[in-house]
Design goal:
- The protein has a single domain, classed as HUPs (Rossmann fold).
- The strands form 3 sheets. The chain has a 9-stranded mixed beta sheet, sandwiched between helices.
- It has helices spanning about 45-60, 75-85, 105-120, 135-145, 200-205, 255-265, and strands at about 15, 20, 30, 35, 40-45, 65-70, 90-95, 120-125, 150-160, 160-170, 170-180, 180-185, 210.
- With about 270 residues, the protein is an alpha/beta fold.
- A hairpin with a 2-residue loop joins strand 10 (about 160-170) and strand 11 (about 170-180).
- It contains 6 helices and 13 strands.
- Bound molecules: flavin-adenine dinucleotide.
- Flavin-adenine dinucleotide binds near residues 19 and 126.
């Protein structure tokens, strides 16, 4: 089923939940049993799709606003500026030492508080964060806000206060409508995020960038960080070895050796 083209952002306030993630390969710190988040950081690539979609919805509507909402350390602002350079209007970052070690339960609570305060018509999420790959945060936040949620959205339109999303499924597409305010997790197939222009990059630093503490949001210390988390990591380790393996180096006779190997085991 084809979805009609976008009508207009019509003064919509769009919040985009954007996570800042490590740029390099992931490593678990054996001391803290948490992801090592030192080193260079970048905007979660899946969230660039959500930013792009928000900018497309906003279009030329000067009355519409795209606000980035993020939970992470203060230095996340550097990476979030990429989304400002793409065209987002402002950033609200929840940065607080007490939030370190927050699991899904604590993170979704803090994000829901800031989103409640923003009161956006539409909350966009990426499909997943590429550091933890949970693909669950949107469900947890929507549940806390008691908002309808559509996930894996590959096309979306907003018209007359109703959002219509074409959702990718294993067997085809679902088309789902929901009244605003609504939460949507976009699929990475929805668009091709733009590159920030030089003008965008130059202008990004001047855009409003607000940092909030947990107390600014009225989040009690026992609902944040490890105290507010329900997950406990007991141990980390390497995956178990796969049993007996045989390595075949291809010196030109690799195919023959594989056939021989399979014949011996009566697999051919
Ligand atoms: C014991 C424990 C300790 C942890 N400590 C930390 C920690 O100190 N710091 C940390 O970052 N994570 C920490 N995590 C991981 C954290 O729980 C996950 O980041 C969280 O559950 C979200 O899952 P995800 O990152 O897989 O996001 P997904 O569910 O894959 O994210 C989906 C979408 O939600 C949005 N989103 C997700 N996270 C954020 C965010 N922070 N800000 C804005 N939008 C977001 C984005 O749009 C993203 O595309 C910890 C996990 C455990 C189990």
């Amino acid at each position: 089923m084809d979805i009609p083209p976008i009508e207009s952002g019509a003064g919509m306030k769009i919040a985009v939940c954007a996570k800042v993630v490590p740029e390099q390969a992931r490593r678990i710190d054996p001391e803290t049993k948490r992801l090592d988040r030192s080193g260079e950081q970048t905007l979660n690539p899946f969230d660039a799709n959500a930013v792009e979609e928000a900018l497309r919805l906003k279009g030329d509507d000067a009355g519409a606003e795209v606000v980035l909402v993020s939970l992470g350390p203060e230095r996340s602002l550097d990476a979030l500026r990429k989304a400002l350079a793409m065209g987002a209007d402002r950033v609200v970052l929840v940065a607080d030492e007490a939030a370190a070690g927050s699991d899904l339960v604590a993170s979704s609570y803090a994000l829901a508080q800031v989103l409640e305060r923003e009161g956006a018509d539409l909350i966009l999420f990426g499909q997943q964060a590429n550091d933890s790959d949970g693909a669950v945060m949107w469900a947890a936040v929507a549940d806390r806000l008691r908002r309808p949620l559509i996930s894996q959205v590959a096309e979306l339109t907003v018209s007359d206060g109703t959002l219509r999303g074409k959702r990718q499924t294993e067997f085809g597409y679902d088309v789902i409508e929901a009244p605003l305010p609504v939460a949507v997790a976009v699929s990475d197939a929805i668009n091709e995020p733009r590159y920030p222009s030089l003008k965008g990059i130059m202008g990004a630093k001047k855009k409003p960038q607000q940092t909030l503490s947990l107390s600014d949001l009225g989040v009690d210390a026992d609902r944040a960080g490890e105290a507010g988390s329900r997950t406990e990591v007991y141990a980390i380790g390497e995956p178990p070895p796969r049993g007996e393996t045989q390595r075949i180096d291809d010196d030109g006779t690799g195919a023959e050796k594989i056939v021989e190997f399979l014949l011996e085991r009566k697999a051919l």
